[in-house]
Amino acid sequence: MKIAIVFGSTTRYTEMVADKIASRPGFENADLIDVEDMNFASLTDYNLLIFGIPTWDYGEPPSSWQDVWDELDQFDFSGQLCAFYGLGDQSGYARWFVDAMGILHDKIAAKGAIVIGEWSTAGYQFDSDKALTKDKKNFVGLAIDDVNQQALTDERIARWCSHLNSLISATNKFERPDGKNKHCRDR
Ligand SMILES: Cc1cc2nc3c(=O)[nH]c(=O)nc-3n(C[C@H](O)[C@H](O)[C@H](O)COP(=O)(O)O)c2cc1C
Fold first, then answer.
1. Where is the Flavodoxin-like domain (predicted)?
2. What is the best residue among 58, 87, 97 to mutate for testing ligand 1's pocket, by most ligand atoms within 8 Å of CB?
3. What pLDDT sits at residue 170?
């Protein structure tokens, strides 16, 4: 199972979470890729792409992600297994909490990605629905609030990673339909 954690991070908190995910069992061999250095062609080498994105400036993706926005539109995500995590501040920016994760998710899901890793909204207080699933019950990915709930971060990451591990074991959709990542199927 080849995993990439692709993150954009302005003040490095999203990068720290990428490091923490890569320290969890099953994720130790993940490649950490700063979106600023991303080579789109290499993304087809991975069975699972984990995208990390903070929200800035009232619901916006950071500039590092905005810089690749158009390239994302060109990439074929069909059949690609993907998961998302987002950083935000639910007290200071409740109306836009982790919105960018929702925006990025919607963009990539619309291109045919298979998305795993929804996360319960229990334990958060906020007023936005952009990062929620259609039924509004869960976040589309892991929401991390290191500004207000730093004490919960490590435990949330650990639980999400073990949740991903069980989903990965249960799915046989490691392989892109074009077979480009066939060589890295075995876990
Ligand atoms: C000026 C400013 C604007 C922000 N805007 C939002 C926002 O709209 N929504 C949100 O959830 N968090 C917002 N945040 C909180 C950041 O997402 C949070 O600090 C995050 O951990 C930053 O991640 P990074 O260090 O990887 O860039 C904002 C923070 C600042 C300082």
1. 3-165
2. 87
3. 78
